[in-house]
Amino acid sequence: MTPEAQKAFHQIQRKTGKAIGDFDLIEAGDRIAVGVSGGKDSYTLLHVLEALRKKAPVKFELVAINIDSGFPGYQKEQIEAHLLHHGFNYQMAATNAYQIIEEKLRPGTSYCAFCARLRRGSLYSQAEQHHCNKVALGHHLDDVIETLLLNQFYAGTLSAMSAKLLADNGKHTVIRPLVYTEETEIQRFSNAFHFPIVNCSCPVVAQEDQKRQRMKQLVHDLAREIPEIRRSMIAAISNVHPRHLLDKNYVTTRSHPHT
Ligand SMILES: Nc1ncnc2c1ncn2[C@@H]1O[C@H](COP(=O)(O)OP(=O)(O)OP(=O)(O)O)[C@@H](O)[C@H]1O
């Protein structure tokens, strides 16, 4: 590893370790399915978890899982070669998601959202087949704050992404160990480590989620004026005062005569 990659890696490891500690993301005996897409975030997640696994006092195991949704041209061989080269325990899982999307996608439904739902289902069933109790995803700090803004601006909810939650199937715990790591740190590490980046090759890949891109740009622009904006937004959702919001469920209805 080059000194630059080493430096970026240490920084990411430190932040990942803090997230693991803060949210009890990993316990002794865990078998964790790490979703690896071929993108920079999940490669980074896998390498950092492996480094932590090697030196952690608690024993846990990792299984890298790649879901091939079947889009023509998806260069999964490059992902597999990388996993093999680095000695990871892995599974490349082929699915017919592309065919299902083509047949079942209704007009007005988001292509990416439908595809992500199918992929998530396949990831959970692979996790089950490999006896994994947890599924780790590569969402990072910027994903969290962009989701926070998206939900406020477009969905009217105050929510983002949690570091740990029970999956919809009620069987697996989904963990996001990179929630404290900024995308620029991952990008720096990914560039220095020369990951073989593979995109999903889907028909809409060029028209990435426009709203998310807008949030990314907004944060980027504001960061010139408020350099600490990302840290501050993460701090904000780690320090919630529900009584000072307008959710009726959190309003105290009883009056306090002495206050
Ligand atoms: N094809 C896939 N196979 C396995 N896991 C996946 C796949 N696609 C996505 N994931 C998992 O879901 C996470 C979020 O997916 P998303 O599509 O938002 O990717 P992303 O933010 O671009 O991350 P990455 O850089 O890892 O692709 C990924 O980080 C990865 O852990």
Structural class based on helices, strands and sheet pairing = alpha/beta
Report the helical percentage.
40-55%
Distance N to C terminus = 61 Å
Number of strands: 6
**Architecture per CATH nomenclature, i.e. the level-2 architecture:** 3-Layer(aba) Sandwich
Topology pattern, helix = H, strand = E: HEHEHEHHEHEEHHH
Q: Specify Rg, calculated over alpha carbons.
A: 20 Å
- What's the level 1 CATH class? Alpha Beta
Bound molecules: adenosine-5'-triphosphate
Q: Uncertain runs with pLDDT below 50, 5 residues or more?
A: none
* Biggest sheet layout: 6 strands, mixed
CATH fourth-tier homologous superfamily: HUPs
User: Average pLDDT value?
Assistant: 93
CATH fold label: Rossmann fold
Strand proportion: 5-15%
Descriptive account of the structure:
This protein is an alpha/beta fold. It has a single domain, classed as Rossmann fold. Helices cover 48% and strands 10% of the residues. The protein contains nine helices and six strands. Strands 3-2-1-4-6-5 form a six-stranded mixed β-sheet, with helices on both faces. Helix 3 links the parallel strand 2 and strand 3. Helix 1 crosses helix 7 (183-193) and helix 6 packs across helix 8 (210-225). The chain is globular. The model has no long low-confidence stretch (mean pLDDT 93). Bound molecules: adenosine-5'-triphosphate. The site of adenosine-5'-triphosphate has 16 residues, from helix 2, strand 2 and helix 5.
